[in-house]
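Technical appendix A lists one of the benchmark inputs used to test multi-chain prediction within the project. The record comprises two sequence entries:
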Amino acid sequence: MLYHVLIDGKSYQLELSQAEGRWHCHLDGREVDLDAVLARRDVLSLILDGKAYEIKREATADDLHFWVGSLRYAAELRDPRSLRSRRTGVGAGAGPKKLVAPMPGKVVRVLAREKDEVEAGQGVVVVEAMKMQNEIKSPKRGIIRQLPVSEGTAVNAGDVLAIVE
Amino acid sequence: MFKKILIANRGEIAVRVIRACRELGITSVAVYSDVDRASLHVRKADEAYAIGPAAARESYLNIDKILNVAHRCGADAIHPGYGFLSENAGFAQACSDAGIKFIGPTAEAMQKMGSKTRARQAMEKIGVPFVPGTSRGLQSVEEAYRVAATIGYPIMLKAAAGGGGKGMRLVRSAEELQSSLESSQSEAQRSFGDGEVYIEKAIVNPRHIEMQVLADEHGNTVYLGERECSIQRRHQKVMEEAPSPIVDADMRRRMGEVAVRVAQAAGYTNAGTIEFLVDQDKNFYFLEMNTRLQVEHPVTEIVTGLDLVHLQIHIASGARLPFNQEGVRLRGHAIECRIYAEDPDNNFFPSPGKITLLLPPSGPGIRRDSGMYEGWTVPIDYDPLLAKLIGYGTDRAQAISRLTRAMSEYFVGGIKTNLSLFRRILRDPEYQAGKIDTGYLDRLLERGPKLDVSDSGGAEIAAIAAGLFAILEPTAPAATNGASRNGSGEDVVRHKPSNWKQTGRAEALH
């Protein structure tokens, strides 16, 4: 299998296959000696050149993260054989991303408008809850396709604040 | 001995008390609000009863509902845990009136120590050292100016009726006094329904050191050693340890004897804690008394080898303390971290939601008192304390190394937690040297974000892992952005097709 992988925005070419119980792996053209087993759901035991790692996966409907040690990486995985960006259940490929309210509260400030271009990490909406303000940031660079809230809108956990494509 | 104890609480402390009941052969009764139906404490109890909607006022703080359950199920005692009704004299009295034993002090002892000004007045009479200031609420601005000038700036204005930083104002000079007094009084009025404010000398970078006491109902009172609780954020404790790095045997004895005098003056029975502020010259001053079992009690249990909840239950059932002061020995060192569902990268904003993966630590020198489990959805309605992780060893350095090791094993996926904060503290040289005070954490946080920098080595590993997961386990995602319900028994999938055969195979692996 060939994958294009984006880790925190940086792109990698990954060739990965299994034959006769052994893994074959090339990362950006470089051969990698590895062994891997799934220990339990979302936990991978990976040995690279003798170094052992316990990798945890956090996958939601809209994004994908991997933990290597105490560091967390945002990931996007694309199978280049598909003609369009396919959501395979592994993690969303390129595509619209929803910004949702993490808990019930009120929108106190809107930092962007529909059709604005935003960068990854740029604040889009500020939600106030429990007397604290939480800036909801865009997870990717893109254009705001929808912004269905405005200053004063009351929101519940999971409500869509914006869609960035 | 009691046959049945109702635990008027939730979360990790309810689990802790239920465990003590199980160990003593006592039937445990849990109460739960609507959002807590699937909580760990309900799963572990022998009996469980619903007490109302999520709001604490209508459930865990509702005295009538709780006593109603106690009557219906025939409980002969109630353990209040900490927070909620644990320091509510009205509740203690109501239990007593209902013929149900309240596991804690009497209503009178609570009332005596519940108001900080009344406590100070009582302490004055018995010669307990306390922070210079007033023992009565300020009657006028003129009085405030006079007292402040006498004791010297900087001074602290504090609310008599409560804590948690509400109604507290640091005043550095006479110019600020009047406006600070007005805002302090109005905040106290709003928070506690009582605008009484008093003055204390502000001690620069004090250490918060508290002494655990235990008293039976036959007049025996002992101290069980101190805890240092100086690692605080906005006056909320985050990390505690026993013993304190700066308290030697002589200081412990002097503080302990003062603590016992305080407890005796209050007519105190059962478990309680006397809080002191300690200045840079190791002078200690009485601050207040907490008339309940505290969150951080495990560190005392570990270094004394005692089970405080067992002792609470024994004392409440009329037993004498099975040891005297000479029988109390301290051994080793214990450090506790409070794991909260909050985001340290976003001003510690609460992070409710579903815990999709939990890999808890264990092994030598590790104790974990937890209310969470994998698959549980952390509710937004309560204090987001998930668990307490305690590391212990023969000395402080070993306790730190064990806790650091346990932190590297601990993984909570699906929500944000403050685990990374503890990693920062544990590797900080100032912390390792024991150079801490109540300003320590603010200083550390001000120094800027963590030193953990994403290096490309880790990114490459993540890239490889991404491909491996895609091949080995292309399952539907498990998390739900906080909008899931407990007890639904299914992962909420929004719009993706899921690969059930693969999921089934993967699940079969564990």
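The CA atoms of residues 130 and 220 of chain B lie 24 Å apart. The first helix of chain B runs from residue 11 to 24. Comparable benchmark entries are summarised in Table A2.
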